[in-house]
UniProtKB/TrEMBL annotation:
Protein name: undecaprenyl-diphosphate phosphatase
GO molecular function: undecaprenyl-diphosphatase activity
Organism: Paramixta manurensis
Key words of the record: Membrane, Transmembrane, Transmembrane helix
Record's catalysed reaction(s): di-trans,octa-cis-undecaprenyl diphosphate + H2O = di-trans,octa-cis-undecaprenyl phosphate + phosphate + H(+)
Domain (Phosphatidic acid phosphatase type 2/haloperoxidase) ranges: 64-169
Gene3D superfamilies: Phosphatidic acid phosphatase type 2/haloperoxidase
TM segment ranges: 29-48, 60-85, 130-148, 154-175
InterPro entries membership: PAP2/HPO (IPR000326), PAP2/HPO_sf (IPR036938), UPP_Pase (IPR033879)
EC assignment: 3.6.1.27
Enzyme class: hydrolase
Superkingdom of this protein's organism: Bacteria
GO cellular component: plasma membrane
């Protein structure tokens, strides 16, 4: 029954040869490029920000990074345990985005953006996390629309993201302070010149 629902939702969302060109172009941009917001935000939060908040921002970056590592590891394990062919690999729907015919569950893109969004909801500000969650929904829609993922792949990415944040929060209690100190030391050594010039925060 779950597989039938998965297929029905996919066919409802998936584009067809009659879909407007502008919608396909927009979906392609969202599917391929919007995920770049993750590394851009991570770099910006670490390097810049109000002096009294930069410490908490860097803690957020580290906790989110740990959550992403856990989430991607869980995603890989889930893909190995529950392999699932992509829609185009089983001849269902229409494909408008080039992609290898590897296993689709859970979505790596979905896992990354939903982990990031949930981390911001839990450890930053609700509004920022909700905005990122909307970005995640847009990415999920685009990759289903273009025929390279199932809806359940994206739900799987969301659930894996929750697990990644949970494991990161638990791990942080044990080595968060030590990791923060060592990361800060490494940062001050590597970015010594930009810090002296005032281009980035100390």
């Amino acid at each position: 029954m779950m597989e039938e629902l998965n297929r029905s939702l996919f066919l409802w969302i998936n584009a067809t040869p009659h879909s407007p060109e502008w919608a396909l172009e927009m979906a392609t941009f969202i599917a391929k490029d919007l995920i770049a917001i993750v590394p851009m935000l991570i770099v910006a939060l670490w390097l810049w920000g109000p002096r009294d908040r930069v410490g908490s921002q860097r803690a957020l970056v580290l906790k989110t990074g740990i959550a992403l590592l856990y989430a991607m590891a869980i995603s890989w394990c889930a893909g190995e345990l529950f392999p699932h062919a992509r829609p185009f690999a089983v001849g269902l729907g229409h494909q408008f985005l080039s992609h290898a015919a590897d296993d689709s569950y859970p979505s790596d893109h979905g896992t990354a953006i939903f982990t990031f969004a949930l981390a911001f909801i839990f450890w930053h500000r609700l509004w920022s996390g909700v905005l990122l969650l909307l970005v995640g929904v847009a990415i999920a829609w685009s990759r289903i629309y273009l025929g390279v993922h199932w809806p359940m792949d994206m739900l799987g990415g969301f659930l894996v993201g929750m697990l990644g944040c949970l494991f990161s929060h638990m791990a942080w209690q044990f080595y968060g302070e030590t990791l923060s100190e060592r990361a800060s030391q490494a940062y001050r050594f590597v970015f010594a010149l930009p810090i002296r010039k005032g281009w980035v925060r100390h």
